[in-house]
Design goal:
- The protein is an alpha/beta fold.
- Helix content is 40%, strand content 17%.
- It is built from twelve helices and ten strands.
- The protein has helices at 51-54, 62-84, 91-98, 111-128, 137-142, 189-199, 206-220, 244-256, 261-290, 305-310, 326-329, 334-342; strands at residues 20-25, 30-37, 41-49, 101-107, 132-136, 157-162, 167-174, 177-183, 294-298, 321-322.
- Strand 4, helix 4 and strand 5 (132-136) form a beta-alpha-beta unit.
- Helix 6 packs across helix 7 (206-220) and helix 6 (189-199) packs parallel to helix 8.
- Bound molecules: 5'-O-[(R)-(carboxyoxy)(hydroxy)phosphoryl]adenosine and zinc ion.
- 5'-O-[(R)-(carboxyoxy)(hydroxy)phosphoryl]adenosine (KG4) is lined by residues 28, 163-165, 190, 193-194, 205-208, 211, 299-301, 303-304, 330-331.
- 5'-O-[(R)-(carboxyoxy)(hydroxy)phosphoryl]adenosine binds next to helix 6 and helix 7.
Length: 366
């Protein structure tokens, strides 16, 4: 294995000047392949999404998502190689000559979708004899803040990972050391957006649908207090979240109200505000207790405009908050490549398999 070539010195720098990682991410309904230099410079980051197929149904059908992954993986791989190195016509030459290692998401995620990325990564690693690095998707999300950044987040840092399947609050003490502080007891924040959007008759994914409808409400009602919905656990001194009650509340309101366009927009703004407030409350609590040097908002929900704006109102957090551009918040392979760079632990291909229920605290045990 070429792993020894990339041994780190004490300052977490690699001995070779440049390390180029090709990463594959197929944990859910996005197929992505990225090529990233030294964990920060994105040479290419191609994402094909099958979300439009699921827009009307209101959620993902795992079997269909896996079939879409199979359809997309080779074209996305090819496009990513071509974009990064347009002058080299032969894709095999690019992998052989330019790529130092392969990284792949091993979990959490849908088993069928994960398998497509993992098997592709194994074959590339085996044929071209490149080190293969398994990556925890949730830890990967955090590293979106290390991409294309002049100012990298200082550690220890506090990360809020809010996505479609997970909501976790963790301390990234140093690269490779994550402490889980708390997480959702039921639905994830993104799931709450998706499920309530469905109740309002809005398309999947629910986050962007609710957000744009809420914007319409804000255009005409700037100062209306948005306190209709509860913020469960918000006043408890722990780092847990609970979002499933929101769905029930919204379902009851939908039954009671006749949903005119204005009322639907108001409800969208209320849902968004309740989720955003619940998330920020626990970030403030953890900031107070652990005094991290940086705070990272990541995962699809971090693309939410209201969350990004509102967290900046808090002076106590100012200068600390790092949020990736929205395109790097949602699933993509560039953050998987960056995570692999800072946690460069290659594994033999025989030991790499999908772990659909991988936890963030299981990070070290991949
Ligand atoms: O991280 P991600 O792309 O995939 C998972 O790992 O789950 O997150 C997807 C989730 C979906 O639930 C989607 O509704 C939510 O992120 N999301 C948003 C926004 N964009 C995506 N939620 C709120 N506001 C957004 N702008
Ligand atoms: Zn994700």
């Amino acid at each position: 294995m070429a792993g020894s070539v990339f041994k780190r010195n004490k300052n977490l720098e690699f001995k070779s000047k440049k390390l180029t990682i090709l990463a594959i991410e197929t944990s859910c309904d996005e197929t992505s392949v990225a090529i990233v230099e030294n964990g920060e410079k994105i040479l290419s980051n191609i994402v094909a999404s099958s979300a439009d197929i699921f827009a009307k149904i209101g959620g993902i059908i795992p079997e269909q998502a896996a079939r879409q992954q199979l359809m997309f993986i080779i074209p996305v791989l090819e496009q990513s190689l071509k974009k990064a190195y347009p002058k080299i016509k032969d894709s095999r030459k690019i992998i052989a000559q330019k790529i130092d290692a392969i990284a792949v998401t091993v979990g959490p995620g849908l088993i069928g979708s994960l398998l497509v990325g993992i098997e592709t990564a194994k074959v590339i690693s085996f044929v071209f004899q490149k080190p293969l690095i398994p990556v925890n998707h949730l830890v990967g999300h955090i590293y979106a803040n290390w991409l294309n950044q002049k100012r990298k987040p200082p550690l220890p840092g506090l990360s809020l990972i809010a996505s479609g399947g997970h909501t976790d609050l963790v301390l990234l003490k140093k690269h490779g050391e994550v402490e889980w502080l708390g997480g959702t007891r039921d639905d994830a924040a993104g799931e709450a957006f998706d499920k309530t959007a469905r109740l309002l008759g809005l398309p999947y994914p629910g986050g962007p649908s609710i957000s744009s409808l809420a914007d319409k409400f804000f255009e005409k009602n700037k100062n209306t207090p948005l306190t209709l919905l509860p913020r469960p656990l918000a006043n408890e001194k722990n780092f847990d979240f609970s979002f499933s009650g929101l769905k029930t509340h919204v379902a009851n309101i939908v039954k009671r109200w006749r949903l005119t366009p204005q009322k639907r927009a108001r409800l969208a703004a209320e849902i968004q505000e309740a989720i955003v407030d619940s998330l920020i409350k626990k970030v403030l609590l953890a900031n107070d207790k652990y005094k991290p040097k940086s705070i990272h908002l990541v995962g699809g929900v971090a693309a939410n405009k209201r969350l990004r704006q509102k967290i900046k109102y808090y002076r106590i957090l100012q200068g600390k908050v790092h949020v990736p551009p929205p395109s790097l918040c949602t699933d993509n392979a560039a953050f998987i490549a960056s995570c692999a760079y800072y946690n460069f632990i290659p594994k033999n291909w025989e030991k790499i398999e999908p772990i659909p229920d991988l936890k963030i605290s299981g990070f070290k045990s991949i």
